[in-house]
Write a structure and sequence with these properties.
Largest sheet: 8 strands, parallel, barrel
Helix content: 40-55%
Distance between the termini: 13 Å
Strand order of the largest sheet: 1-2-3-4-5-6-7-8
CATH topology: TIM Barrel
Number of domains: 1
CATH superfamily: Aldolase class I
Bound molecules: phosphoenolpyruvate
Shape: globular
Number of helices: 11
CATH class: Alpha Beta
Structural class: alpha/beta
Length: about 260
């Protein structure tokens, strides 16, 4: 049975004070809840503060990016080991803003995936198509390319520390959410891809999250789809009440 995940991607938002307050409020809400998994991904400078605030709760810490090299002359980059030092269990890789704003390729992303998994850091690997790709009926081709590229060289064993996030780019930060049918169809494709390219067990046990304008009022419907195992949330993860509403939806769906 796959546990539902509610992961908050704070992007380049919050300041020290608001990050601490948000983490504290969510830790108080979640406490030791174990029916779902909650992950907070604040900006790098606030990782240690957020870690302190969530300690004692079941919430896990994640980062929004990393570099594939372990150390050296890579000004401005952050290694996997550094993230682990701050208490991270997860790192988001391949987010559409990294792909489309920073120009990361599947090859770049794959190097990071390999580096993270090698050191035991869990990876939330984001995949998703642009609007024009969906309109040209290319969604599955894009997903296939990004899955193949991002997971190059990763074994079925390595996959146990990976979560996939399907994030259609046209739904991210736009207020336009994929319909439950659109989300389920993409998730079903991804699970079948995992089954074909790995094996049925790996595909069955892997969590596939939906991301793209998830809100408290659409979270339960999305997470009730057979192949949707939770949500990666941007904007609505920045307020304790809205992310709290998404957490409540996940708990409610997971408890049936
Ligand atoms: C995201 O950035 O991963 C995301 C899904 O953003 P939003 O929820 O704001 O659409």
């Amino acid at each position: 049975m796959r546990k539902l995940v509610a992961a908050g991607n704070w992007k380049m938002n919050t300041d020290l004070k608001s990050a601490a307050a948000l983490a504290e409020a969510l830790a108080q809400k979640v406490q030791q809840e174990s029916s779902i998994e909650v992950v907070l991904c604040p900006p790098f400078p606030y990782l240690t503060t957020v870690k302190e605030k969530i300690s004692g709760s079941s919430i896990k810490l994640g980062a929004q990016n990393c570099y594939h090299e372990a150390e050296g002359a890579f000004t401005g980059e952050t290694s996997v080991g550094m993230l682990q030092d701050t208490g991270c269990d997860w790192v988001i890789l391949g987010h559409s803003e990294r792909r489309h704003v920073m120009g990361e390729t599947d090859e770049d992303i794959n190097k990071k995936v390999v580096a993270a998994l090698d050191k035991g850091l869990g990876v939330i690997l984001c995949v998703g198509e642009l609007l024009e790709e969906r309109q040209a009926d290319k969604t599955n081709d894009v997903l296939e390319t990004q899955m193949k590229g991002g997971l190059q060289g990763i074994s079925a064993e390595g996959l146990k520390n990976v979560i996939i996030a399907y994030e259609p780019v046209w739904a991210i930060g736009t207020g336009v959410t994929a319909t439950t049918e659109e989300a389920e169809s993409a998730h079903d494709f991804l699970r079948k891809w995992l089954s074909t390219n790995y094996n049925a067990d790996a595909a069955e046990s892997m969590q596939i999250l939906y991301g793209g304008s998830v809100k408290p009022d659409n979270a339960a419907d999305l997470m009730s789809q057979p192949n949707v195992d939770g949500a990666l949330v941007g904007g609505a993860s920045l307020k304790a009440d809205s992310f709290g509403g998404i957490i409540d939806a996940a708990i409610q769906v997971s408890k049936g």
